[in-house]
Amino acid sequence: MSCYKLALLQMKMSDDREENFAKAESMAREAAAAGAKVICLPELFLSPYFCKIEDPDRFDLAEEIPGEGSERVSRLAKELNVVIISSLFEKRARGLYHNTCLTFDSDGAMPGVYRKMHIPDDPGYYEKFYFTPGDTGYKAVDTSAGKIGTLVCWDQWYPEAARLTALEGADIICYPTAIGWLPSDAEGLGKDQHQAWQAVQRGHAVANGVYIAACNRVGFEAEPSLKGGEGIYFWGQSFVIDPFGRVVAVASKDAEEILYAEIDSEIIEQTRRWWPFLRDRRIDSYSGIVNRHNLGCF
Amino acid sequence: MSCYKLALLQMKMSDDREENFAKAESMAREAAAAGAKVICLPELFLSPYFCKIEDPDRFDLAEEIPGEGSERVSRLAKELNVVIISSLFEKRARGLYHNTCLTFDSDGAMPGVYRKMHIPDDPGYYEKFYFTPGDTGYKAVDTSAGKIGTLVCWDQWYPEAARLTALEGADIICYPTAIGWLPSDAEGLGKDQHQAWQAVQRGHAVANGVYIAACNRVGFEAEPSLKGGEGIYFWGQSFVIDPFGRVVAVASKDAEEILYAEIDSEIIEQTRRWWPFLRDRRIDSYSGIVNRHNLGCF
Asked: Which of A23, A37, A40, A43 is labelled catalytic?
């Protein structure tokens, strides 16, 4: 059985990579001093969310892995003796980029590399232009704090991704995230959008008996040429949900913040004893999950 | 595009089969008179929830399909010109019983037979004694009110079941249900249990862009020999959730009631245009869903 303090670093980002990196390091140091053993950063924490428009110059933001960015996070994990979940824009080859999540263990080793599998493409979130869909599959990696699964943002909407990560043995699934409102949404559908986002992830927690953590960025990021508005309001509200579906911690919607929660594997054990959903899965009947759809004539 | 009124008949059941049947017919007539085009009954509506203990005499409650019970529901559907979703205890052969959900179209035809795929077995819910796991797979049937999927109670906890039913083209997934609190739960974990039950189904609605409806029984059913208490409080609170994850209707927790909701396929269309989760499914990466688990040495 293990029990530890998780910290989500809900951040605002500027155009200055060094400023973002230094802020992440400073918040991580504060979290570690407060006793956190696992620290999760928001999606693509080294820059503003650059996918708001399609601009080939923005591939300059990408970096190789291993490289200067990943090595700097590795040193931080080792220095603080904590697990760090870090999201980077990976340049794998010329013309081949990924949205990649790295898990560093508390000795600085990098046992986990996950490349975002589900790539969105919506007004203001033109990720299909930048990111090749991941080829890592779904993973839970052994760390000094137990088995940790990582998925990224749009993966949040896919029960298959959560299930497959849980079947790898994850105690917790952490989602570095960048989600917000277009100015045109914030007044109308905005509340429903936020509620749906939390609801689908509560579903993953209950269905799988795992902790779910989403670490979002926060604040307004200007993008004057974005259609439908002049930028995105990232809605913060990073959260942690326990294996019973209870929302045990939520951050504010407009401020930078370190959000803490206790992760207790005994709660996973007890929840799954009483609600043994894994026991009754009808694995003989699920093969159709790999179909695109079952309507239509071919 | 179609738009219709759905009615869920949240009922209490007695030991008198005829009384239960007559009550269901009466409530269905009221719902049809109020304009309902699809009517859903609770799980096993012709008797108390008999699985509270394991008693071989209770197989006497089962019936063949087609048979007197199914034919009586068929006549009701035709008389009222409505679709009826009906849950029966099916005797398929000596020693072979199912928890079966039948969909009757408004002409009395029976286009849908679904046998509960996921069978629970928990204190007070000894279903593995009574029900052979279903062999129908997941279905959405064409009715005069559009494509309707049916699943049953414990299936509610399985994202695979909801996904596979949605991929069959369902606009709505209806769950006849029998869920409640043991007296020992009601004071402590009861609220969390209810919340988790609703949360996992909100997740199905959001992930699949479908309506979700759960029709539960309500009220206390005595079972003096049940360990841990003297019966079950069925918690009612039947609900309808729209494709955006909004809870659009909820019944009371302690009274019989007809719960109505408008089902509008245009809302499915618009939700899926803005949140096109089906577009981005990574069907090349989901084959591991048919594994039991991925830990262990074999």
From this structure: A43
What ranges do the domains of chain B cover?
3-281
Which residues of B are less than 8 Å from A162 in CB distance?
A: 159
pTM above 0.95, yes or no: yes
Gap between the Cα atoms of B181 and B179, Å rounded: 7
Among B203, B284, B288, beta carbon nearest to A164 = B288
> At A9, which helix (H) or strand (E)?
strand A3-10
Backbone angles phi and psi of B263, in degrees to 5? -110, 120
Contact predicate B91/B115, CB 8 Å? no
What residues of chain B lie within 8 A of the CB of A272, using their CB?
A: none
Q: Which residue in chain A has the smallest CA separation from B289?
A: A164
pLDDT digits (tens, 9 = 90+) for A128-160: 999 999 999 999 999 999 999 999 999 999 999
* Cα torsion angle, A287, A290, A291, A293, sign: positive
Angle between helices A190-208 and B159-167 (to 10 degrees): 120
Pick from B137, B164, B199: CB nearest A289: B164
- CB-nearest partner of B285 from A137, A280, A292: A137
pLDDT digits (tens, 9 = 90+) for A274-284: 999 999 999 99
Contact A207 B157 (CB under 8 A): yes
Q: How far apart are CA A239 and CA A179, in angstroms?
A: 13
Is A116 a known active-site residue? yes
- On the CB side of A262, CA atoms within 13 Å amount to 6
From A205's Cα to the closest Cα of chain B, the distance in A is 8
Q: What fold does the segment set B3-281 form as a domain?
A: Nitrilase/N-carbamoyl-D-aminoacid amidohydrolase (3.60.110)
The CA distance from B178 to the nearest CA of chain A, in Å, is: 16
Closest CA to A118 of B215, B59, B276, B88: B276
Residue B116: closest C-alpha in chain A: A282
DSSP summary character for residue A193: H
Quote the tokens at residue A22.
Answer: 């230094």
Q: Which residues contact A133 (CB under 8 A, 6 or more apart)?
A: A115, A116, A117, A118, A119, B282
> Strands, DSSP E only, in A54-125?
83-93, 96-104, 112-115
Q: Do A199 and B206 touch (CB under 8 A)?
A: yes
- Cα separation of the two ends of chain A: 50
ipTM associated with this complex:
0.96
Query: Which residue, among A99, A156, A289, A291, would best test binding to B if mutated, counting the most B CBs under 10 Å from its CB?
Result: A289
